[in-house]
Amino acid sequence: MDLNIKVNDKNHLDIGGADACDIVEEFGTPTYVIDENRIRDNYNRFYNAFSKYYPDFKVFYACKANTNLAVMKILESEGCCIDAVSPGEVHISKMLGFSGDRILFTGNNITNDELKFVHDEGAVLNIDSVSALKRLAKIVDPEGLKISFRVNPMVGAGHHDHCITGGVMSKFGIMGLEAVEVYSLAKKLGFTPVGMHSHIGSGILDPEPFKLAIESTMDIAGKVHQEAGIDFEFVDFGGGVGIPYTPDEKLLDLDKFAEINIALFKEKLEEFDMATPTMYLEPGRYLVGDASVLLVSVNSVKESYRKFIGVDAGFHTLLRPAMYDSYHHIVVANRMDAPITQKVDIAGNVCESGDLFARDRLMPDVEENDVLAILNAGAYGFTMSSNYNSRPLASEVLITDGEANLVRERERFEDLYDKQIIPSHLK
Ligand code: LLP
């Protein structure tokens, strides 16, 4: 099994050298627990796999996966760059010490004010439409400004329809067919286009779509190089590398994956006589997904028409199961050796029937006050959480070599309304 699960000698879940039960005692539930060393290992494994075959390689962490400041600081210290999709992500990255040239901004449907903000912060703009290009030319001085374009490589893949970002149904990027024209227009407007970007989707464990996307993106880049005279400083193939969520899924063989894709990249560079641009990749999930668990407490066990294990978190805490029907492996953190005895539904505390973490899940006997660990919660977990049902946001704890530090306080009730204003006539 390729899931990241460790057990200590008390038969409790071990998270980066810390005991899950001790964490619950100190910080309560629900709490996201992040393993610092796992993030560092994931980053280095990823970086080393590709840079071994192509040294001019950079990793841009897709921080939409997890913008916890400690997580981003860890990746900053490793030398990682940032893929940002909103002015807020640019702001956070700058505040943490990422310089503008380490931030690639890939927004879609962004306003003039947002374009101007990102430009003024020094981030590199990856433009998603001709509309944005023309508007940008009016609000900044285009002369010599280095920009990039996102293209739709007409290849799409992902763990769910919502997570496929290439192909005819996708709102992202410019069409390959118009690329020469768009890069030429950018030049005419005074810009210096130096990059091309594509991203086909998220949660992909099959290497095949990546190959097709590299091929297609490079064919577009080659044409743009030859026909619009663009010398590429970088080509960015986006993110999307999946991680195993179920016990049957296997980790991608990253070394082989890198070897094959870099060979293809080099072949295409040669075919189109494109020199040696830097290769960028933008992993989000791969770097942080398996580095966190969500610890929750069992508060009720109900025998109804089905058996429900009720916990003190819900889709406001971790949306993926409700939104994408995503599988997250769940273990009893305080009795890791307990044998499987039953099939149950694991339900959250939101007032909606769809608020389930698992349906028909094989589990051991579970009792009130047991601690469940919902695994692989590090990517698109906390960042997609909300205050729905007026539930305060969970706390986050970072484990470093076995030592626990609170890195986000649990919200208080006051946080639920402190930005609201009651007009005077209602006071
Ligand atoms: N680059 C771009 C332009 C992206 O849009 C994304 C993800 C990534 C990189 C990183 O993809 P990753 O390596 O993490 O797969 N909420 C969904 C995932 C949405 C991904 C959106 N874009 C989920 O929980 O599965």
UniProtKB/TrEMBL annotation:
<feature type="binding site">
    <location>
        <position position="285"/>
    </location>
    <ligand>
        <name>substrate</name>
    </ligand>
</feature>
<dbReference type="InterPro" id="IPR000183">
    <property type="entry name" value="Orn/DAP/Arg_de-COase"/>
</dbReference>
<dbReference type="InterPro" id="IPR002986">
    <property type="entry name" value="DAP_deCOOHase_LysA"/>
</dbReference>
<feature type="binding site">
    <location>
        <position position="320"/>
    </location>
    <ligand>
        <name>substrate</name>
    </ligand>
</feature>
<dbReference type="GO" id="GO:0030170">
    <property type="term" value="F:pyridoxal phosphate binding"/>
</dbReference>
<feature type="binding site">
    <location>
        <position position="380"/>
    </location>
    <ligand>
        <name>pyridoxal 5'-phosphate</name>
    </ligand>
</feature>
<keyword id="KW-0210">Decarboxylase</keyword>
<feature type="modified residue" description="N6-(pyridoxal phosphate)lysine">
    <location>
        <position position="64"/>
    </location>
</feature>
<feature type="binding site">
    <location>
        <position position="352"/>
    </location>
    <ligand>
        <name>substrate</name>
    </ligand>
</feature>
<feature type="binding site">
    <location>
        <position position="324"/>
    </location>
    <ligand>
        <name>substrate</name>
    </ligand>
</feature>
<dbReference type="InterPro" id="IPR009006">
    <property type="entry name" value="Ala_racemase/Decarboxylase_C"/>
</dbReference>
<comment type="similarity">
    <text>Belongs to the Orn/Lys/Arg decarboxylase class-II family. LysA subfamily.</text>
</comment>
<dbReference type="Pfam" id="PF02784">
    <property type="entry name" value="Orn_Arg_deC_N"/>
</dbReference>
<feature type="binding site">
    <location>
        <position position="240"/>
    </location>
    <ligand>
        <name>pyridoxal 5'-phosphate</name>
    </ligand>
</feature>
<dbReference type="GO" id="GO:0008836">
    <property type="term" value="F:diaminopimelate decarboxylase activity"/>
</dbReference>
<keyword id="KW-0028">Amino-acid biosynthesis</keyword>
<keyword id="KW-0456">Lyase</keyword>
<protein>
    <recommendedName>
        <fullName>Diaminopimelate decarboxylase</fullName>
        <ecNumber>4.1.1.20</ecNumber>
    </recommendedName>
</protein>
<comment type="function">
    <text>Specifically catalyzes the decarboxylation of meso-diaminopimelate (meso-DAP) to L-lysine.</text>
</comment>
<keyword id="KW-0663">Pyridoxal phosphate</keyword>
<feature type="active site" description="Proton donor">
    <location>
        <position position="351"/>
    </location>
</feature>
<dbReference type="InterPro" id="IPR029066">
    <property type="entry name" value="PLP-binding_barrel"/>
</dbReference>
<feature type="domain" description="Orn/DAP/Arg decarboxylase 2 N-terminal">
    <location>
        <begin position="44"/>
        <end position="288"/>
    </location>
</feature>
<dbReference type="GO" id="GO:0009089">
    <property type="term" value="P:lysine biosynthetic process via diaminopimelate"/>
</dbReference>
<dbReference type="InterPro" id="IPR022644">
    <property type="entry name" value="De-COase2_N"/>
</dbReference>
<comment type="subunit">
    <text>Homodimer.</text>
</comment>
<keyword id="KW-0457">Lysine biosynthesis</keyword>
<dbReference type="InterPro" id="IPR022653">
    <property type="entry name" value="De-COase2_pyr-phos_BS"/>
</dbReference>
<feature type="binding site">
    <location>
        <begin position="282"/>
        <end position="285"/>
    </location>
    <ligand>
        <name>pyridoxal 5'-phosphate</name>
    </ligand>
</feature>
<feature type="binding site">
    <location>
        <position position="380"/>
    </location>
    <ligand>
        <name>substrate</name>
    </ligand>
</feature>
<comment type="pathway">
    <text>Amino-acid biosynthesis; L-lysine biosynthesis via DAP pathway; L-lysine from DL-2,6-diaminopimelate: step 1/1.</text>
</comment>
